[in-house]
Design brief:
Length: 196
């Protein structure tokens, strides 16, 4: 390395900043002239604010410090309840429509009548009508079934279609092998989602 290079002449080095005189904080105890090295919290309603005390006065302050001084039993119970959630506002989850404020639809309206009749089971063809998602309906369609099919009907239809489309049942003919794969995939989807 050539220390006489002109590149080294252009390097500028910042001088180290001058250390400022340390700020001396006096003790907050009345009449004390010592340095306030130790911090002590100011109390409730003044979070994040601190007194500065010397060693003797911080011991005295800590011995008499009580965060809950002046609170009655009700206020203390409320504080404990709010402390469970970190003193943040909370709202109930999954509240039903009946517990929320607002007008309920009247029975005279079309939607009100539909709600009342569904609650009582009026107007339904089947007692237990299962609800399927789109993929489950597609899988049922591959088995040539509709949304009203129950577990027993799905199993029976699956066995019937496998026997019909299996190459061994067709004398080794593999022309319906793709249909068989589709049927097996549809049944496996229904089974993995605990619909069968």
């Amino acid at each position: 390395m050539n220390l006489n290079s002109r590149l080294f002449d252009r390097i500028r080095v910042k001088s180290a900043p001058q250390a400022a005189d340390p700020v001396v904080v006096p003790c907050n105890h009345p009449g004390c002239k010592a340095e306030g090295v130790f911090r002590a919290p100011m109390g409730r309603e003044r979070e994040g604010q601190y007194f500065s005390f010397c060693k003797d006065h911080v011991r005295e302050y800590n011995a008499t410090y009580d965060y809950f001084r002046g609170m009655n039993d009700e206020a203390l119970a409320k504080f404990q309840k709010d402390d469970i959630v970190g003193h943040r506002p909370t709202w109930p989850l999954g509240a039903r429509r009946g517990s929320r404020p607002g007008p309920e639809p009247s029975d005279e309206t079309m939607f009100g009548e539909a709600r009342v009749s569904r609650r009582r089971g009026v107007g339904r063809k089947y007692k237990h009508e299962p609800r399927y998602n789109i993929l489950a309906l597609k899988a049922l369609g591959a088995l040539d079934l509709d949304a009203r099919a129950d577990e027993a009907a799905i199993k029976a239809r699956y066995k019937e279609l496998v026997k019909r489309h299996h190459p061994d049942a067709n004398g080794g003919d593999r022309s319906s092998e793709e249909k068989l794969r589709e049927i097996i995939q549809a049944y496996n989807y229904l089974r993995s989602n605990k619909l069968v």
